[in-house]
């Protein structure tokens, strides 16, 4: 373990490589729909062949191939409520897949369709998605390392990814947008941690640029743009009382960041306008949000994909963020505010359980904040105890329990398509694996 901690770059690269290898290892396995992309990921993926090969946003051909049972006959253009950010960032890997297909056709004399649909296209694109998960690991570690010891930052990063739910979307469903969401979020907080004392327009522009990209990936992620400016409020209030002009600079920077973020997000507005006939009309326009009666308790503690019940490592992380207030009030408030923003949005949505999800998947954007809180908690525990063996032991238990839940979810709960029960997410994760081993023997 000590060798693992002393070489963080190698450790994070190795873990990313293991995730990538696990994904490629499963490619030959039979699939019910014969596709590598699936679930919401199908809707993200269809942007790629439609735009880069057909040069439009008419998904008729793509849906006919990937979703043959779906009926979109009532639409002039088939709808797609999912955003363009993840496909935009997957583009280099999709183009690489296209090049590989062309080379195979040219030099090997095969006749592979160059329509953007086949396994080669999908495999390279989803490999890129996994690599974004690897970037999320690295950026998160670098962000947390700014405020905690290297060993605590590395262990916390690994635990929040592989003891939480991002690992599932790196291996089992990389066609979802969550790996890209985590990469953009962790980059945002890394940039903020290195520039948090600066008040120049360049810094504000960077915040706006990354936040706009985050909103392109998942619109609610863009709400994090508020956090750097929230962190400056104490100084702003002092400047008002002292009659200096710092508050004017704060307003200028906030406005500049918001305009840049909006400019980046306008790419999505263009797509919506093309698809739905209005800049602010989207597939989410008709979905219900209950802003005054959010399901806040259920989102965290329900057996039906509650964040803390499925992945208790996140509860430890939030505890760590609270304790962090003693060392760094701004970091603690920013971390907790980011978590609360997502908690409220998710709880207000009619599908607060987040659909077909391995735990609270919409909180993956909070990865760097969770890792920060957990790293501080680990530091505090290390100060109180002379031996670290029990910390490593508890970490191993969290990783093992999450692995067993991963296996149960992927090979049972997804197939049964029933609401998870308390038994499913506790004892059954162990009994299910034992049952499968017994069947093999």
Descriptive notes:
The chain has 2 domains: 2-384, no CATH class; 393-441, no CATH class. Helix content is 68%, strand content 0%. The chain has 22 helices and no strands. The protein has helices at residues 2-6, 8-26, 40-45, 47-53, 60-66, 85-108, 119-145, 150-162, 166-171, 178-195, 201-217, 226-231, 233-242, 246-276, 296-301, 307-310, 313-323, 329-348, 367-384, 389-416, 422-425, 428-440. It starts with a helix and ends with a helix. The model has no long low-confidence stretch (mean pLDDT 91).
Give the helix/strand layout.
Blueprint: H1 2-6, H2 8-26, H3 40-45, H4 47-53, H5 60-66, H6 85-108, H7 119-145, H8 150-162, H9 166-171, H10 178-195, H11 201-217, H12 226-231, H13 233-242, H14 246-276, H15 296-301, H16 307-310, H17 313-323, H18 329-348, H19 367-384, H20 389-416, H21 422-425, H22 428-440
Helix pairs in contact: 2-7, 6-7, 7-8, 7-10, 7-19, 8-19, 10-11, 11-14, 17-18, 17-19, 18-19, 20-22
């Amino acid at each position: 373990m000590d060798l693992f901690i002393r070489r963080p770059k190698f450790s994070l690269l190795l873990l990313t490589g293991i995730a990538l290898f696990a994904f490629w290892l499963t490619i030959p396995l039979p699939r019910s729909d014969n596709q590598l992309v699936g679930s919401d990921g199908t809707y993200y993926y269809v942007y790629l062949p439609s735009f880069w090969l057909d040069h439009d946003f008419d998904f008729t051909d793509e849906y006919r191939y990937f979703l043959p049972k779906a009926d979109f006959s009532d639409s002039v253009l088939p709808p797609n409520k999912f955003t363009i950010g993840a496909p935009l960032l997957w583009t280099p890997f999709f183009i690489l897949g296209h090049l590989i297909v062309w080379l195979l056709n040219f030099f090997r004399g095969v006749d592979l369709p160059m329509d953007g649909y086949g396994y080669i296209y999908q495999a390279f694109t989803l490999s890129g998605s996994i690599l974004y998960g690897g970037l999320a690991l690295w950026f998160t570690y670098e962000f947390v390392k700014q405020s905690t010891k290297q060993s605590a930052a590395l262990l916390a990063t690994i635990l929040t990814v592989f003891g939480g739910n991002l690992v599932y979307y790196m291996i089992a469903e990389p066609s979802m947008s969550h790996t890209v969401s985590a990469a953009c979020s962790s980059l945002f907080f890394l940039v903020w941690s290195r520039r948090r004392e600066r008040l120049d327009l360049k810094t504000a522009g960077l915040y706006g640029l990354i936040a706009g990209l985050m909103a392109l990936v998942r619109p609610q992620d863009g709400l994090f743009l508020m956090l750097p400016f929230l962190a400056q409020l104490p100084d702003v209030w002092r400047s008002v009382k002292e009659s200096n002009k710092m508050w004017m600079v704060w307003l200028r920077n906030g406005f500049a960041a918001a305009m840049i973020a909006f400019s980046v997000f306008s790419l999505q507005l263009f797509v919506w306008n093309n698809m739905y006939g209005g800049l602010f009309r989207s597939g989410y326009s008709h979905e219900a949000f209950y802003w005054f009666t959010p399901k806040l308790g259920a989102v965290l503690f329900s057996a039906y994909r509650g964040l803390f019940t499925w992945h208790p490592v996140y509860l430890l992380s939030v505890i760590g963020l609270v304790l962090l207030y003693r060392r760094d009030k701004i970091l603690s408030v920013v971390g907790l505010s980011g978590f609360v923003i997502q908690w409220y949005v998710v709880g207000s949505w009619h599908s607060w359980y987040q659909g077909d999800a391995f735990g609270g998947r919409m909180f993956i954007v909070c990865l760097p904040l969770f890792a920060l809180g957990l790293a501080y908690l680990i530091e505090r525990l290390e100060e109180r105890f002379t031996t670290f063996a029990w910390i490593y032991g508890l970490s191993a238990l969290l990783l093992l329990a999450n692995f067993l839940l991963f296996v149960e979810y992927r090979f049972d709960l997804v197939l049964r398509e029933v609401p998870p029960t308390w038994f499913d997410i506790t004892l059954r994760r162990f009994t299910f694996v034992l049952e499968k081993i017994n069947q093999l023997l």
